[in-house]
Amino acid sequence: MNKKIGNLFKGDKGIWTVFFFLTLISLIEVFSASSTLSYKSHNFMGPIIYHAGTILAGVFITIVTLNIPCRYFKIITPIFIILSYASLLWVLAFGESINGANRVIQLPGFTFQPSELAKGTMVLATAQILSAMQREDGKGADPKSMKYILYLVVPAVALIGLENLSTAVLLFGIIFIMMFLGRVPMAQMGKLTGALALIAGIFITLVLTVGSMDSSNDDETAATTEVIAAANNAEKSESAVTKLFHRFSTWRNRLVNKEPRPENPKDYNVRDNFQVAHANFAIATSGIIGKGPGNSTERDYLPQAFSDFIFSIIIEEMGLIGAIAVVFLYIILLFRAARIAGRCENNFPAFLVMGLALLLVAQAAINMMVAVDFGIVTGQPLPLVSKGGTSTLVSCAYIGAILSVSRSAKQKPALAMATTS
Predict the structure, then answer these.
(1) How far from the centroid of its chain's Cα atoms is residue 399's Cα?
(2) pTM of the model
(3) Using the 8-state DSSP alphabet, how is residue 134 labeled?
(4) Which residues have CB under 8 Å from 247's CB, separation 6+?
(5) Is 334 left (phi over 0), alpha (psi -120 to 50) or beta?
(6) DSSP 8-state symbol, 185
(7) Structural element, H or E, at residue 251
(8) Pairing of the two strands 96-98 and 110-112
(9) How many angstroms separate the CA atoms of 167 and 334, rounded?
(10) Strands (E), 28-83
């Protein structure tokens, strides 16, 4: 029996341990943080049953993925690229709106978020390009590799960024780090850094300008929006320019509202900083050991307590000790992935493992920074912990791919010793 279980959970034991504890924390904290969902649905157990089912489906996906030999990931890359671009275009035109942005495709029984698939696909494709274009003289990647990567990744980042800017920035940041790890010539990396700084400056200026124009009209149009939409079907008659810039006011508000705290606490406007304020309340009342699982009070005020701000609920209920434990789990994940990559004889699995691990850990870092008021509110879930459908399942697939690589990488030293003896 134990042998069968061991054969089922193959791969790096450290990665499995991190995966187990993160999903366990997820079940406990999502159950606690879903009080709002339970109240709205009049179903106390409904949200946690759904989430537990998602976790179980994720475990199944992890086991299936880890049993796929790493070389087959190369074969499915073109299929994933086609699916990613097709779904990204589809969601922009016909997707369902979440928090004012078209981010999901409604399918029978569940919703699908194309950006989650696109993130893993771009990492997979980048790893393949970098590994294929390593020069034989050992001097790093061919200079043409950056061009091929940007041709593939930039359109996807642009499509994601129209409705989900934080995910687009996160994805491109990971691709940038992968190019650095893949030893793309430093002169090219320097030019790209300069170009990105220039683009960022122009973009922020545009957001502050156009977003200011949009937000100034919010009060005047709020009372009549529903009437106009119902009478004239305004959504279908929107100009292409309006659709392109409709997120600018949101981005501007996030930049402008991220101001230093006033010296006098009475001057702090809780209404304008609602989510961050209640996240801070959760942290401030936590202590060293927290209030205990299920005893959060701020979960009833935070609209995304089970997703974007779940780390605040973890701190409130598990205290500083629990927060450090969660951070430590992600550090172990990155450390174990680096060990696995170091054992790989080929470049592709090494780049793939590091790309996927960096994607998970960087997203976790952003989520935790926002929760402790150390960054701009982005809407990034905490991987493997926050309540989610596509994000949870895709994150489990990432873990499965890392475990798949760990299986083959783990065998290399043993084979080498066998040959020498």
Answers:
(1) 14
(2) 0.84
(3) B
(4) 100, 101, 162, 163, 165
(5) alpha
(6) -
(7) helix 248-257
(8) unpaired
(9) 20
(10) none
